[in-house]
Structure formats: structure tokens, C-alpha cells
User: Which sequence fits this backbone?
């Protein structure tokens, strides 16, 4: 039996990295909203911690996705 080599297409790599970026955005954005809501309810009694938490989550996601760009090849 001959061993078959597994060929990884560039589209598959791009799709995988893009899926990771989208999933990361959902998780970090949701986590920021959750932490902002908790801070808003228990500490500050205002709404700005919710939007600040979401913004920080999105900045962290943006940084991570730029470091691991879907189109970048190593």
C-alpha cells in the first residue's frame, strides 16, 4: 500500500483562520460585555462599563487576528 499524502489547500487554511477570528470575536466581545455588565451592576451604577468592556474585547480580538492574519502564510 502506498502512503497517501494529505494535501492542505490554501482555502482551507484561510477558512480555518477566519473561523478562529470570528469565534474569538464572539467570545471576547461577549466576555467584555459580561464583565462590563457585572462592573456596571455592582460597582459603577452606570452604562459605560458595558461598552468599555465590549470595546476592550474587540481590541484584543483585533490584535490577535492581525497577528494571525487569515491571508498570512508562515
Assistant:
Amino acid at each position: 500500500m502506498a502512503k497517501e499524502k494529505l494535501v492542505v489547500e490554501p482555502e482551507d487554511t484561510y477558512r480555518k483562520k477566519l473561523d478562529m477570528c470570528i469565534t474569538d470575536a464572539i467570545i471576547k466581545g461577549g466576555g467584555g460585555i459580561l464583565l462590563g455588565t457585572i462592573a456596571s451592576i455592582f460597582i459603577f451604577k452606570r452604562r459605560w462599563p458595558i461598552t468599555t468592556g465590549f470595546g476592550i474585547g474587540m481590541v484584543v480580538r483585533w490584535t490577535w487576528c492581525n497577528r494571525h492574519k487569515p491571508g498570512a502564510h508562515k
